[in-house]
Amino acid sequence: MLSAVLLVFAVFEATKYGGWVVVAALAGAVVPDLSFLLGLSGPHQHGRLPRRAVPVYNLVHRPVTAIVVMLTCLIPESPSVAVPLFNFGLTWLLHITVDRALGFGLRTADGWQR
């Protein structure tokens, strides 16, 4: 349910403001999974994230990280900076909630799903 609410709100914000807000929304949806790039080189097993990628993966897949990004939108005085930043954090949080709904959580120190 939370994912659906966040999706509707993110789409509303992106269509309302357009431009960089749309770009920020798309980036926020993708950025958390860029942590997988840290594990591309080197051997790994199917379903296991390499150890060096685990701390970054776990950091960017914690809701508090996305919420902190959303709260930083209170700092800029210009809406042209604050609105894209807020929507970036909003879609980042959406990404995390969808992952949780699909059964993907944080990783153990060895890189396996918890």
Structure characteristics:
114 residues; mainly alpha; 5 helices; 58% helix; elongated
Q: How would you briefly describe this protein structure?
A:
By secondary structure, the protein is mostly helical. Helix content is 58%, strand content 0%. The two termini are 22 Å apart.
Describe this structure in words.
This protein has one domain (2-101). The protein is 58% helix and 0% strand. The protein has helices at 2-17, 20-30, 54-60, 63-71, 79-101. Helix 1 runs antiparallel to helix 5, helix 2 (20-30) runs parallel beside helix 5 and helix 4 packs antiparallel against helix 5 (79-101). The longest helix has 23 residues, at 79-101.
SSE topology:
Blueprint: H1 2-17, H2 20-30, H3 54-60, H4 63-71, H5 79-101
Helix pairs in contact: 1-2, 1-5, 2-5, 4-5
InterPro entries: DUF4260
Protein name: DUF4260 family protein
Keywords: Membrane, Transmembrane, Transmembrane helix
Structural class: mainly alpha
Query: Helicity, in percent?
Result: 55-70%
Low-confidence segments, given as residue ranges, are none
Number of domains: 1
Number of strands: 0
Q: What spatial form do the alpha-carbon principal axes imply?
A: elongated
Total number of helical segments? 5
The proportion of residues in beta strands is under 5%
* Mean model confidence by pLDDT: 93
* Radius of gyration from CA coordinates: 15 Å
Largest sheet: none
End-to-end gap? 22 Å
Helices and strands, in order, run as HHHHH
